[in-house]
Design brief:
Layout (H helix, E strand, L loop, with lengths): L1 H27 L3 E5 L5 E5 L5 E4 L1 H9 L6 E5 H5 L1 H6 L7 E3 L5 H6 L4 E4 L5 H6 L4 E3 L15 H10 L1 H22 L9 E6 L8 E3 L4 H8 L3 E2 L9 E3 L2 H7 L3 E5 L3 H10 L1 H4 L2 H4 L3 E3 L14 H12 L7 H13 L5 H8 L14
Parallel strand pairs: 3-4, 3-6, 4-5, 6-7, 8-10, 8-12, 12-13
Antiparallel strand pairs: 1-2, 9-11
Length: 358
């Protein structure tokens, strides 16, 4: 009887230990979500990501807007040069500056668990190091950049779920409402041609975007056309002097942190200063908030309406109030009138030039 009792107790203990081991295996399983990025890659991502290298200004802006800023370890270096980033979201001053060619070793050293990147030249090496990579872009490789404008926000919502997904859906509704609003405006008698100077980097007046891009989408929505659309480049096209003279645009948009330098260059250039649109003072600045708002960002609804106002004189639009409301809604930051004026002139919160040309 005593021996039987011992055997039963041993069986009970063995069974208990087995149950405990199975339980640990079940709870230690990492659940994942499968996301399709903007290059069509299906990427499996753990649902408990805490450290992200967000090497895309657009995705960084949207992550902060969707309440995910504390998950960012580092971002594209241009974002860290913008003093408005740390002003609006103080934790941004702690972000590490990454280049598109950042090494997998550096990312691993920083404990990065996910990379969201705009230029994927180094993506394979990062994947081989065991870090999932999500590609996002400001252009479409297959056609007009229309529904693609929502992809970065959609991807972020799918990865992080919860409140971030709700905010991503709300942002999409805001963008669609802005599109609907400006689409209802009377069509211009003639579709005007607009040249865009990309001032995100110090690459001069000929640094522009081509077809199937975000800037192309913005102008098309406003009833205008990107002058360099015909080049059908996927990202950036650098036009020549001869091309610029042949384009002879009706207007220009100048964006990015380097736009004050570019405006000076434009005035000093015999070629550019003699273009009709410059003589007629139809050169328009693009406000710079956390990033230049011509990029996919929390400010996209503002940029859609602002762009439309440039080509629809009858459109009753107040940029200052729209920008204030948007920044308050998505970043919980209250802009003053002086702040708005500085943003619209690519100046720092102190009213100084944001970046100096070398």
């Amino acid at each position: 009887m005593k021996k039987s009792l011992i055997v039963i107790m041993c069986l009970f203990l063995l069974t208990g230990c087995g149950m405990k081991e199975v339980g640990l295996t079940e709870t230690s399983e990492v659940r994942t979500v499968t996301v399709t990025d903007m290059e069509g890659n299906q990427v499996q991502i753990p649902n408990d990501i805490e450290k992200v290298a967000c090497i895309s200004q657009s995705a960084t802006d949207l992550m902060i807007a969707f309440g995910l800023g504390d998950k960012i370890v580092g971002t594209y270096r241009s974002f860290t040069y913008n003093p408005w980033a740390a002003e609006i979201y103080p934790s941004a001053k702690n972000y590490k500056p990454y280049s598109y060619s950042v090494s997998a070793e550096e990312l691993l050293d920083n404990g990065v668990e996910l990379v969201i990147i705009q230029d994927t030249e180094n993506a394979d090496a990062i994947r081989e190091a065991g870090i999932p990579v999500i590609a996002v872009h400001q252009y479409s490789p297959t056609g007009p950049f229309d529904e693609e404008v929502f992809d970065t926000a959609r991807i972020l919502g799918e990865i992080f779920g919860g409140e971030a997904a709700e905010k991503a859906r709300e942002w999409e509704q805001d963008v669609r409402a802005a599109i609907e609003e400006v689409s209802a405006l009377e069509k211009p008698a003639r579709e005007e041609s607009v040249y865009y100077i990309n001032g995100e980097k110090q690459k001069g007046l000929f640094y522009s975007d081509g077809g199937n891009s975000m800037i192309s989408f913005l102008l098309s929505t406003a009833g205008a056309a990107l002058a360099t659309e015909k080049y059908e480049v996927l990202n950036v096209h650098k036009v020549s002097d001869e091309e610029m003279l042949a384009l002879d645009p009706d207007a220009m948009l100048v964006g990015g942190a380097y736009q004050n330098y570019l405006m000076e260059e434009l005035e000093k250039s015999d070629l550019w200063s003699n273009l009709e649109c410059v003589k007629k003072r139809r050169v328009y600045r693009i406000p710079v908030a956390m990033i230049g708002i011509e990029n996919v960002s929390a400010e996209t609804p503002v940029m859609i309406r602002y762009t439309a106002s440039l080509f629809h004189p009858e459109y009753d639009y107040d940029l200052a109030n729209d920008l204030k409301d948007n920044v308050q809604k998505y970043f919980h930051y209250e802009l003053s009138d002086e702040d708005v004026q500085n943003m619209c002139n690519a100046l720092s919160p102190e009213g100084e030039v944001m970046v100096h040309a070398e």
